[in-house]
Specification:
This protein has helices at about 1-20, 30-40, 75-80, 115-125, 145-165, 190-195; strands at about 90, 100, 130-140, 175-180, 200-205. By secondary structure, it is an alpha+beta fold. It has two domains: about 1-80, no CATH class; about 90-205, 2-Layer Sandwich (60s Ribosomal Protein L30, Chain: A), CATH 3.30.1330.60. Strands 1, 2, 3, 4 and 5 form a five-stranded mixed β-sheet that branches. Strand 3, helix 5 (about 145-165) and strand 4 form a beta-alpha-beta unit.
């Protein structure tokens, strides 16, 4: 009888352990939880939060190209694509350096001195079929992360509107805001901050 009772108690303890830990199937560490979130969101399209969009122009891969994985399976390239803002748009074109547009403090209006730079970018796009541009909005470090992210987006959208008015199709333009995350110079003095209040432009060969 005592042996039977010990056996029953042992089974109950194992059941409780399985219920609490889930046998380790769902690891709730931050890293695995983040991977699970990204994998779950990617159901035929990229869906990651803006903080994940930190892939650079040199990180481009092709989504799903020969990864040999079945539904729900990820290759390293596919995961990199999910974190890459260019992957479903185009491939950066080596050797093409488009001008940088700068902004006044806390402003997103295109200044008179910066408009000719956008004219140059529009001329390049009009002369090169099959190309597009990614506009990356940036800020200096004054203000909250959330505010600067929004300000960077407004700056990128201002440049986009300018290019649209020059006859560039909406499908050839993508905007991204990095806020204060990608300074071009130290934010320790005004000269550096002025270089960080900018739009960067990346020419890309559009995906078919």
């Amino acid at each position: 009888m005592a042996l039977k009772k010990m056996f029953v108690n042992g089974i109950a303890a194992m059941a409780l352990t399985f219920a609490v830990t889930g046998c380790g199937i769902f690891d709730t560490s931050n890293e695995n939880e983040e991977m699970f979130r990204i994998k779950k969101d990617k159901d035929g399209q990229t869906a990651v939060d803006s903080d994940a969009l930190k892939g650079g122009a040199g990180d481009v891969n092709t989504i799903g190209a020969g990864n040999g994985n079945g539904p729900g399976e990820w290759s390293n390239n596919a995961l990199a694509d999910a974190l890459n803002p260019y992957a479903d748009f185009g491939t950066p074109i080596p050797g093409v350096n488009l001008p940088t547009v700068y902004f006044s403090f806390d402003r997103s209006i295109i200044g008179a001195s910066e408009a000719p730079k956008l004219d140059e970018i529009a001329a390049y796009l009009l002369s090169n079929a099959g190309t597009g541009v990614v506009i990356e909005g940036n800020c200096d470090d004054r203000g909250s992360d959330e505010y600067n992210r929004a300000l960077g987006e407004r700056r990128a959208l201002s440049a986009k509107e300018y290019l649209l008015n020059k006859g560039i199709a909406d499908s050839r333009i993508r905007t991204i805001s990095y806020g204060e995350e990608r300074p071009a110079a130290p934010n320790t003095e005004e000269a550096g901050r002025a270089k960080n209040r900018r739009d960067d432009f990346v020419a890309v060969k559009l995906r078919n």
